[in-house]
Amino acid sequence: MSDIFYDLETKELLDLTLEDQASAIRALHFSVGVTWCECHKEQIFYRADAMGDHILLHERMIGFSSRQFDNAVLAYNYVWTRLETPPVKEEKRAAPKKIDKVEIPAQPEDLKRVFDARTFDLQIDLENRVGYRLSLNALAQGTLRREKQGTAALAVIWYRLAAQLKQKYAYALREANDHEGADRAHELGAYYQARLERYCATDVQLVRQVFEYGAQNRRVFFVDFDGERRNIKVDWR
Ligand SMILES: [Zn+2]
User: Fold this and answer.
1) The pTM is what?
2) Ligand 1 center to residue 58 CA distance, Å?
3) Position 86 confidence tier, pLDDT thresholds 50, 70, 90
4) Residue 102 and residue 107: Cα distance in Å, rounded?
5) Residue 40 C-alpha to ligand 1 middle, in angstroms?
6) Would you kindly state where each structural domain of the chain is located, as residue ranges?
7) Cα(35) to centroid(ligand 1), Å
8) From ligand 1's centre to the CA of 42, what distance in Å?
9) CB 230 within 8 A of CB 33
């Protein structure tokens, strides 16, 4: 079975106070996505359609909180991207309607169902076992003795800084003949972009390592609200 681990970031922060979380998630814009699989290793994506096409080459998608969040963002952004920008010539993964025998539905909710059907969501699996939702950080701390490198809020800030510095400010400075300033703005933008990509890639690795630990040891650990390390039996394979 070919597995792919994945995570993505968005341009806006999800407003957790909104009652209809599902529609709030559907409205988010994709900023960057990372996948890891044995066959292709790490891949970074700047377009949801390219990421979706790549993911569908694999039989099982393994993520964290991915059914509710990543799959919705991916499906809606996949369809928007296709509608807004016809596939460009230089794009390596040009846009076939069929990916590895998978028919790509035209409607985002149908595409989300295609993703959901092949998704193994660690958060949901563990919630079914312990009765409440765990954070990736609690699992990474308990199982791997590692911590997440940032937050969703930071990822949004990094994205905005990267985009504005590279596009808006570097361009404006160059137009005004400040070439050194433009280069500096561009460099700083690239620095924030790299942090964003590392953050996303690190989460993919945390999910992968937690999954592999659980599959091998038939248990994972998390740190609970009182700081106690607790274990959960799993039957992952
Ligand atoms: Zn692969």
Assistant:
1) 0.91
2) 6
3) low
4) 14
5) 4
6) 3-148+198-233, 153-193
7) 9
8) 9
9) no
